[in-house]
Design goal:
Length: 68
């Protein structure tokens, strides 16, 4: 339960995209999977949640993710 609570505190976007990637991996070649991983990483890096996470880290506070 402790682990589930720690995971639930993370950005909803950062949690949902890897699940999609794992589902797609079974139907993809290695090259396609790696390209998708790069694309999803870039997508995660372009979110407001990423900015909130970095700001919270620098300000030594808990982040307040919004899923955007």
């Amino acid at each position: 339960m402790e682990l589930a609570n720690r995971i639930a505190e993370k950005s909803p976007i950062a949690l949902s995209l890897p699940r999609k990637l794992v589902k797609l991996a079974s139907r993809s070649t290695l090259d396609e999977g790696l390209r998708r991983e790069v694309d999803l990483f870039a997508l995660c890096f372009s979110t407001e949640d990423k900015n909130e996470g970095v700001s919270a880290f620098l300000e030594k506070r808990k982040p307040e993710f919004k899923g955007r």
